[in-house]
Amino acid sequence: MAALALSALAGCQPGSGPRPVPSVPQIGADLNCGSGDHGYEDAQAGWGFCYPATWRYTERAQSSVDPTGLDLTFDITYAPPTPEPCASSRPPGSSPCPGDFAFMIVSTYERGTSSDLAGWLSTNLKTTAPLQPIQWGNAQEAGRFQDGRRIALTPHHVVIMELHSGLLDLEDEMGSRLATWKFSF
Questions:
Q1: Which of 23, 33, 51, 113 is most exposed by smallest CB count within 10 Å?
Q2: What H or E segment, with its residue span, contains residue 170?
């Protein structure tokens, strides 16, 4: 009996074999996030991205009818691990302060039979608004509206990202991470 107990104990020692692989997929595990970033993926929406590890967010989902899709909203707060006080009158562009917030909406729509963004926009949003072409992850085609929203055409969806910066500068943070986005096929 003692030999069996020692054998069981030896099997539980650190470094005694390969690490177990999680049985549940890790959110954002297949994203290429840089040091200090976390990954977020939504399998239903068909996309994922990297974001700063200092963010905390509350996510809400709501379906949309015309065009058919899903809107995910993120209430984002800057929450560093060791908060430091910030000056009440800080200069523009200074680093964020604990509690700074912003709001992001990522809408995912059915692509349908549209072969390009211009066709999808004309059919679904009844607009021919000009787009500035951009690179956005592995999107087939992407652009930026004059109002700052970004739009991507993926094999199955059209994704629109709308950033509403409060005291936290989402344009800088998310704009610099566009290459981390992964759209599912």
A1: 23
A2: helix 170-175
Contacts of 79 (CB under 8 A, 6+ apart): 54, 55, 56, 98, 99
pLDDT over 50 at 12, yes or no: no
| Number of neighbours of residue 71 by Cβ within 10 angstroms | 17
What would the pLDDT profile of 80-102 be if each residue is shown by its tens digit?
988 777 876 666 556 788 999 99
Enter the tokens of residue 57. 């967010």
Q: Cβ-count burial of 22 within 10 angstroms (0-12 exposed, 13-18 middle, 19+ buried)?
A: exposed
DSSP letter (8 states) at residue 179: G
**HSE-up (13 A, CA, CB side) for residue 71:** 11
Residue 11 lies in a domain: no
**Type of residue at 22:** P
How far is residue 11's CA from residue 96's CA, in Å, rounded to a whole number?
47
**Exposed / middle / buried, residue 116 (Cβ in 10 Å: 0-12, 13-18, 19+):** exposed
At 133, which CATH number?
3.40.1000.10
